[in-house]
């Protein structure tokens, strides 16, 4: 269990396995349920969507506070990156975990996500890398692919 | 110590809580101990971890530390910020949690043995109102209140067990949790993974937190923190031309204004009893903190302060006037940078005599060395994520220029890596980072599953804390 006590719903694992084993999705975005008790699937994507669609979804994610006020929302996500190696040795895939916690989200929301993250990370086996991102620049494709590939991407 | 009001732009739009039971949050540090209710954004009570000892009894709080005969000032922690004197710790925590916070409890206050003494002190353990007595009277004074406590990441297993034992057995808490300060400070910054740089009073430390867990091999600490800086200032004052006398406020009867650099024209108080060194040192510390707040600054670059030309440049910049309690005053220019430079560059430190026996700073003790060593202690794959998520906390980081310098030095140390320093803009958030994180964590709706319950404690004994609070 995570430090917050939040748990992971089964659908999170199912969606992840669809991404990892069946290549059904390119990404899965997760969120905390409105009562903050469970991590659930927010959305999945793939097909003709590209990375920028995924990024926009994170940037525009919302969270409702207890009092009902809507503000920027943190999220978790896994993204199955595919890139060409600079060396020309072919293509690599890396499943990456992203903890998205925008600096301008509410302190309460950020805290709930920070203290619940471990539960989800543990449930998703086989994640190759992870990053923690706090502003839209952090999740620019160029920045992310550089980190994910450790500079080996073409 | 006053609390800083939150400006509206940062005021949370909600209260964190929602649960009926209000847990208590206790954050003990070497300089001060902070206490309040879970779900609130600031601790309600902040008192010195120093307390008075007089005629065989202990008294607590800022306002009781005044000159008296046979009065000594002590601290319940040792210089590692680990509890040293458990009797005193228990009493000071009871003073905070029971008397000052007064959570709802079964026994009415007029029968609970916490009546205030005639002189306004809380006289615990004197006369017929001895400490056992007090707790007995109360039966289980915190039977309604879950308690979250914070601890230094290097706290000993024995001290952890002792903390849960007191909470469960002496106070009867229904639930208990122990959080390491870097973990809750990083949560308060909204991060599960962070490199936490905490520069407090007795200690500066750097700790890597990954997914809400302290990475043990990353823990680094050194005494180059607030008290060390106080000694640097003392030395600087001694070596100044003319020498600056450190006369704390309580010594001054009255003063007349004098020109800058002129000797003080003040009448000092005399006492018909000797003033203990420990009391005097405590009072000096207050004055030194004021000097840090209003005069001391961290050299922001370019380069280090000792680099050729920088000192001359600093001297040409506008200075700050500081008036001592006795009215003497002078302008501080380049010295106000120089005095803090040893934190970053060991060659710049004053060899201070006084309380700091080590005197000189060794290379491994600077903030930057701590960061370097901490990162070297973690898996290489985690490092870039940590450097991109640095959380700065502790009151000494409030020094003007601290964050700018940290950024500059890190950029030089790790070229090409993305470096991001998160330092709360509000001074209160930086002073109380760990308390605030603990407050939010323990007020989360799901947290009730995390607490170590009384039942679990009864079944497993104090060893449960090692198993559960990892
Ligand atoms: N505005 C300020 N600028 C610089 N230093 C300050 C400021 N306010 C307080 N200090 C110094 O900060 C120190 C106390 O820091 P803090 O409250 O973080 O320590 P603590 O948590 O009680 O101690 P520790 O972490 O060492 O156990 C004192 O030495 C004090 O002089
Ligand atoms: Mg501290």
UniProtKB/TrEMBL annotation, chain A:
<dbReference type="GO" id="GO:0016363">
    <property type="term" value="C:nuclear matrix"/>
</dbReference>
<dbReference type="Pfam" id="PF00241">
    <property type="entry name" value="Cofilin_ADF"/>
</dbReference>
<comment type="similarity">
    <text>Belongs to the actin-binding proteins ADF family.</text>
</comment>
<protein>
    <recommendedName>
        <fullName>Cofilin</fullName>
    </recommendedName>
</protein>
<dbReference type="InterPro" id="IPR002108">
    <property type="entry name" value="ADF-H"/>
</dbReference>
<dbReference type="GO" id="GO:0003779">
    <property type="term" value="F:actin binding"/>
</dbReference>
<dbReference type="GO" id="GO:0030042">
    <property type="term" value="P:actin filament depolymerization"/>
</dbReference>
<feature type="domain" description="ADF-H">
    <location>
        <begin position="4"/>
        <end position="149"/>
    </location>
</feature>
<dbReference type="InterPro" id="IPR017904">
    <property type="entry name" value="ADF/Cofilin"/>
</dbReference>
<dbReference type="InterPro" id="IPR029006">
    <property type="entry name" value="ADF-H/Gelsolin-like_dom_sf"/>
</dbReference>
<keyword id="KW-0009">Actin-binding</keyword>
<dbReference type="GO" id="GO:0015629">
    <property type="term" value="C:actin cytoskeleton"/>
</dbReference>
UniProtKB/TrEMBL annotation, chain B:
<keyword id="KW-0234">DNA repair</keyword>
<keyword id="KW-0010">Activator</keyword>
<keyword id="KW-0805">Transcription regulation</keyword>
<keyword id="KW-0227">DNA damage</keyword>
<dbReference type="InterPro" id="IPR043129">
    <property type="entry name" value="ATPase_NBD"/>
</dbReference>
<protein>
    <recommendedName>
        <fullName>Actin-related protein 4</fullName>
    </recommendedName>
</protein>
<dbReference type="GO" id="GO:0006281">
    <property type="term" value="P:DNA repair"/>
</dbReference>
<dbReference type="GO" id="GO:0005634">
    <property type="term" value="C:nucleus"/>
</dbReference>
<feature type="region of interest" description="Disordered">
    <location>
        <begin position="103"/>
        <end position="135"/>
    </location>
</feature>
<comment type="subunit">
    <text>Component of the NuA4 histone acetyltransferase complex, of the INO80 chromatin remodeling complex, and of the SWR1 chromatin remodeling complex.</text>
</comment>
<keyword id="KW-0804">Transcription</keyword>
<dbReference type="GO" id="GO:0006325">
    <property type="term" value="P:chromatin organization"/>
</dbReference>
<keyword id="KW-0539">Nucleus</keyword>
<dbReference type="InterPro" id="IPR004001">
    <property type="entry name" value="Actin_CS"/>
</dbReference>
<dbReference type="InterPro" id="IPR004000">
    <property type="entry name" value="Actin"/>
</dbReference>
<comment type="similarity">
    <text>Belongs to the actin family. ARP4 subfamily.</text>
</comment>
<dbReference type="Pfam" id="PF00022">
    <property type="entry name" value="Actin"/>
</dbReference>
<keyword id="KW-0156">Chromatin regulator</keyword>
